[in-house]
Write a structure and sequence with these properties.
By secondary structure, the chain is an alpha/beta fold. It has 19 helices and 31 strands. Helix 14 crosses helix 19.
């Protein structure tokens, strides 16, 4: 039996498939519960100011308010020509293109845009500047990185969550930013979803308990006609609605559910957030019963503006309008007419502005709808305080990563840990112990922080990118030393002197959004399991610390460890792990485990989604489970059958979801013997003959464009020699502006020009001079000046497909 497939056949996916639900996508407002934005948001002072501003604005200025552009494609000087109303720094955008920018560069950028907006003629409406500060102000170097929401869900502590939101707001405001796209109120129902860790729980009661606290922490209290108090920023409840309920956990997919399920489960904390005064709501990429939310007026207008009583700003997600029928990135009147107030238009904002202006002039977007949208934007801007003098906290960079905030994050780490197993008194680690700390993740703060950290995907970071932070290893080292013990770091688990206990830290490589979608819940890497088993065989007690953005099937690892701790994605303060694992000098626990599962833990890799209260609920560890030192319990040996179908075809993937799948990587060759191996997070890297650049495909940055500067240049996707079935085919989704060549070993087949995305399926037998049963490298080459873009590369059953001809 193969336990760790890279990808599996459709037979596996059938285990998870839910029955089709024939439902309509029209909401009925009379079925929905009620809420309402606070009266202060639409108070008499605010509304008088909105009317005054609207009267002073011309059509061009009004249309400009509907557009939000990304800082990667707009500069402050553009505002002299384009009356854009908002900017954002997307996950891969940063001041001057430098992802390692500190708070000073962010404040300089904010002020440059603010001054440019103030200098333009006319009504001079200030900008809103938004970022994804989803677990602290994690875009910037030096910020406090709090545990991701999945960990915070395990704490069951609304007061802690409010304090974290307030600390995050202060760090954001100190850098001159007005708006964070948080809180996420999704209720993930299939943990294969790549955004599971952005949700607090599979059960809607937890985000309901947290929503008001999050909004209060970020925004404070609203006041009529007066901006937020110092150190607060505008929030955005997201992603409306049922982004966590898509079929098979597919990001941007379809929630095929009844309207009652939409209300009972996925409305989660939106009512509470609205009642608390959240100033914006972000619409989901996804669909409900086949209709994209971004153009569903029954949800955006009839429900959200009806019984839910939301009076703030409604914004789309990153270029989400482009996926609507009849729409493009640069044109989508149907979204505005459905009730959207602001496009998030990262790259095509100029053309979108021109087309939206034309649609407003023609009446395709009515004057009444335009004024309604602009009024909501102005209302939110007044409440956010962008019309007021600069927040006094601006430039107080001592707030960013302050000792107070780091102490708060450390406490959050302690409270988020969930103890799944503790046999043979492995924990707490006794005073004076010799401790081996193993695993490549132990001294890797980026691994502990996960996605949405420095860069969008959270990859390519080193500990130097987290000044003031503490890795799990460093926290363990210091805590053990305080008790008179000693700790040794050994990534591979090797040692000279036999330790009293080994702590093995391992987990998921960082990811965000679409890129984290999985086909099963199997934890694939085999190295940590081998380390645990070797240490066990050598008689060393072992403690597994598992870093992950979701529950995963880890039964072999749990069996091989004496203790197993679900640490989720704890962030920058690794001492919080040591606070609970290492005893005090007298042998008593410094802190007991208090975290309990807010997501059910799977019994097998092939088990259908397990959600508390749902029919057929049978998890390995149930919702609410969590051992403590005070309440121990024995965990018997768990089944190591992954629950995948017998005979399921194991099909390697080489490139998918915006990344090269380990152990495969890409090498750029210039033809003269020089080459460069690219990391998954590389943004744009020349090798002398080839340049690699992330580009958008079906999702943001899901593809890579290779520009060839020499006829001899090539791109090689390689890995260890892999035995594959020679009756399979190579499948690639690509675009090419000139004919190219595809090679395996010395065998080459032509790759036709494709001006639009297309999928080519080429039987391995077409590579006649190669040994396809021993695959180790796939090469792409093209003439000098040509561009080839790749979005997916994998093996697939091919049926009857002819070989390509020149």
């Amino acid at each position: 039996m193969t336990r760790r497939p890279l990808a599996v056949s459709a037979a596996v996916l059938a285990l998870f498939a839910a029955p089709a639900v024939a439902q309509e996508a029209t909401a009925h407002p009379e079925l929905w519960p009620t809420s309402h934005s606070p009266a202060a948001l639409t108070g008499p002072i605010t509304e008088a100011r909105v009317r005054e501003l609207l009267a002073a604005m011309n059509l061009e200025e009004k249309v400009g308010q509907l557009i939000q552009a990304d800082i990667g494609s707009i500069k402050p000087e553009d505002l002299a020509t384009w009356p854009i109303g908002s900017i954002l720094a997307g996950g891969s955008s940063s001041p001057n293109g430098d992802e390692r920018s500190g708070p000073g560069a962010w404040l300089d950028l904010s002020r440059a845009f603010r001054e440019a907006a103030a200098a333009r003629p006319g009504a001079r409406i200030p900008l809103l500047f938004g970022v994804d500060a989803v677990h602290g102000h994690a875009n910037i170097v030096g910020a406090t990185i709090f545990p991701h929401n999945i960990g915070l869900g395990a704490t069951r502590d609304p007061a802690l969550i409010e304090a974290i939101a307030q600390a995050t707001a202060a760090e954001v405001a100190a850098t001159g930013v007005d708006w964070t796209f948080a809180p996420t109120l999704a209720v993930p129902r299939d943990d294969r979803w790549g955004r599971t860790y952005e949700g607090f729980s599979e059960e809607p009661g937890i985000p309901r308990d947290y929503a008001a606290a999050l909004v209060r922490g970020l925004q404070g209290e609203l006041r009529d006609g007066v901006g937020l108090t110092s150190g607060h920023v505008m929030g955005s409840a997201k992603h409306f609605l049922a982004d966590g309920g898509t079929t098979d956990g597919r990001d941007r997919g379809d929630a095929a559910v009844s309207e009652q399920e939409l209300i009972d489960i996925h409305l989660s904390g939106y009512r509470e957030a609205i009642d608390a005064g959240v100033l914006s709501v972000m619409v989901s990429f996804s669909s409900w019963n086949g209709v994209k939310h971004t153009a569903n007026p029954s949800l955006l207008t009839d429900v959200l503006r009806g019984p839910l009583g939301f009076q703030g700003l409604l914004i789309g997600d990153w270029d989400a309008h482009a996926a609507l029928p009849g729409c493009r990135s640069d044109s989508c009147p149907s979204a505005i007419n459905a009730g959207l107030d602001m496009f998030m238009a990262p790259n095509a904002w100029k053309a979108l502005y021109d087309n939206t202006l034309a649609q407003a002039r023609s009446g395709e977007i009515s004057e009444a709808r335009l004024d309604e949208a602009v009024a909501r934007i102005l209302r939110a801007k007044i409440a956010a305080g962008v019309f007021d003098p600069a927040d006094p906290i601006e430039g107080r960079f001592e707030v960013v990563g302050s000792a107070e905030h780091r102490d708060l994050a450390r406490r959050a780490v302690r409270q988020s840990l969930v103890l799944l197993k503790n046999e043979n008194a492995a924990l707490p680690i006794r005073p004076g112990a010799r401790v081996l700390v193993a695993g490549a993740s132990a001294d890797d703060i980026g691994m502990a922080a996960g996605g949405w950290t420095i860069g969008w995907q959270g990859v390519g970071n080193t500990n130097a990118d987290f000044p003031g932070a503490t890795s799990i290893w460093a926290g363990m080292r210091d805590a053990v030393a305080e008790t008179g013990g000693s700790a040794t770091l050994s990534p591979d688990g090797a040692y000279t002197d036999k330790p009293d206990v080994a702590v093995v830290v391992f987990g998921e490589t960082p990811y965000a959004e679409y890129y984290g979608d999985q086909e099963t819940l199997d934890f694939a890497p085999t190295g940590p399991l081998e380390t645990l088993r070797r240490l066990k065989a050598e008689g060393v007690p072992t403690v597994a610390v598992f870093l992950s953005g979701r529950p995963l099937w880890t039964n072999p690892e749990i069996n091989a460890a004496d203790a197993f701790v679900a640490a989720w994605l704890p962030g920058s303060e690794g001492q919080g792990v040591a606070d609970v694992l290492v005893a005090s000098a007298d042998g008593s626990p410094r802190h007991d485990f208090t975290g309990t599962l807010s997501f059910s833990w799977p019994r097998s890799a092939g088990q259908p989604p397990q959600n508390v209260g749902a029919p057929g609920y049978d998890p390995q560890f149930a919702f609410g489970y969590g051992l403590t030192y005070a309440r121990p319990a024995s965990v018997p040996a768990l089944s190591e059958d992954p629950g995948l179908p017998e005979g399921a075809t194991v099909l390697p993937r080489f490139f998918a979801g915006g990344r090269f799948i380990a152990p495969w990587s890409v090498t750029l060759r210039d033809g003269s013997g020089n080459h460069r191996v690219e990391s998954p997070g590389a943004a744009a890297s020349p090798s002398g003959g080839v340049t690699l650049t992330p580009i958008d495909g079906v999702a943001q940055e899901s593809a890579r464009r290779f520009r060839f500067a020499a006829d001899t240049a090539s791109v090689a996707v390689g890995g260890p020699p892999t035995a594959v079935d020679p009756t399979l085919a190579l499948s690639l989704r690509y675009r090419a502006d000139a004919p190219a060549r595809l090679s395996i070993g010395r065998a080459t087949v032509p790759l036709a020009r494709a001006d639009d995305w297309t999928t080519a399926v080429i039987p391995l037998g077409c590579f006649r001079d190669a040994d396809p049963a021993r695959l180790s490298q796939i090469q792409i080459a093209a003439p000098a000046g040509a561009e080839v873009s790749l979005e997916d590369l994998r093996l697939t059953p091919f049926g009857m497909v002819a070989c390509p001809t020149p």
